[in-house]
Amino acid sequence: MIAKTIKDICLGESSSFSKTITEADVVLFAGVTGDMNPVHMNDVYAKTSMFKNRICHGGLVSALFSTVLGTSLPGVGTIYLSQESKFIKPVYLNDTITATVEVIEIIESKNRVVLKTTATNQNGDVVITGQALVMPPR
Amino acid sequence: MIAKTIKDICLGESSSFSKTITEADVVLFAGVTGDMNPVHMNDVYAKTSMFKNRICHGGLVSALFSTVLGTSLPGVGTIYLSQESKFIKPVYLNDTITATVEVIEIIESKNRVVLKTTATNQNGDVVITGQALVMPPR
Amino acid sequence: MIAKTIKDICLGESSSFSKTITEADVVLFAGVTGDMNPVHMNDVYAKTSMFKNRICHGGLVSALFSTVLGTSLPGVGTIYLSQESKFIKPVYLNDTITATVEVIEIIESKNRVVLKTTATNQNGDVVITGQALVMPPR
Amino acid sequence: MIAKTIKDICLGESSSFSKTITEADVVLFAGVTGDMNPVHMNDVYAKTSMFKNRICHGGLVSALFSTVLGTSLPGVGTIYLSQESKFIKPVYLNDTITATVEVIEIIESKNRVVLKTTATNQNGDVVITGQALVMPPR
Lengths: 138, 138, 138, 138
What we know:
homotetramer; Thiol Ester Dehydrase, Chain A; 5-stranded antiparallel beta sheet
């Protein structure tokens, strides 16, 4: 288990997690969150929307940042204080997303780290930008 | 299906969605996102953490805002532009969370609405605060 | 419910269970076991692997033997003592697997039965071989 | 992503993964594998069995070895050739299992590694022993 204290963390350090987001993921996420928006769940509706196809829930994609923060950088024991996410482009079913977190500020006196959070698809297009504030494990 | 255009939306208007977040939700969310952080998945570890018990993924709880935005206020056809969330208190398994969105700014010229997003548990404790920026359906 | 005692079991007797293993099965199995190996979860990575496509978890496929042992031969009340499995060929998403168990040894004095365990895909290719040791119900 | 070639692997090296196995895990595993054995699914039946309570599927518990093999030791790109598992003690719902793999033989000429596989519960009781044969990534 990776668990980096603030002294183990360097400015500019980054870590990533990649996953294909499938129809099964979208169905399960909808069930768990109750978000049955037809743009995620209804092929016929989605074809009439500006996206032309069903898209993944933004909250599913942005949750991949938490996967990296809590298991890799800083790792186990991290306390997640806040997340800002801008949804730049739609994520379609079967897109493979890479969620990357990069350390952009270290506030040692308060045991806080700010990370830039970026999600890209298999074509390298940025789909989410944002930042996270965390307390690394002590 | 509810789908409010910007002309149908009033300042101060709000809408909510409530759901008990169960162990099954946490298991499914972990599988979908890959987030196997032991504070969510491991009873023995969680007892040693500052939370003293397994807690729900923050991204699961904040995803309830999207449920309200995309199905109720503004409703179907809404485009989710950004979300900021501060994780104030932990959410434990079997807590019942109410996610509320409240219109705090209407920018009619750009077809944008800003909503305050607040999640509370069954005791009325605020667990997440933040805000969302959306484009209502035209 | 089938529950065969050792006296009801014949050498050479066999039983099977068949199931299509879908993408949803793989997503759920990953969540339950924590096994997020990209060869199972990431289309882009899997294309670069020797398998050229995402494959199912071996443990998911070999678990089908337990389905047969515990519900059909010997059936309910069986105690599963051990399993050996050789993973011969990859199982791809949407393959239909038939798991067969065949009685190859009956040790009546100790109430133990040895079964050959074989999984084949829809083309008749053997994907797993091995054997199980069980105690039939009394 | 961890991916150790055979030259990076040392005799005696080990790695572990821990997870509480919950009722939701058992339900999902049953659905995925079709193993509806009442000792896993039926409280009333299970109380009459020698185990006195519902127990987890052995295949679910032994699948945790694959999690370690494919993501940590040797890591991504590992090819799983075989697994032998002896089911020593029952695993009950809400037990927290630690699956450990330990390198016991390195066959460099054939690019194969043999690992001892041991699962223990939260009390330190060994519930599964066995061994795995894998090809590390090249």
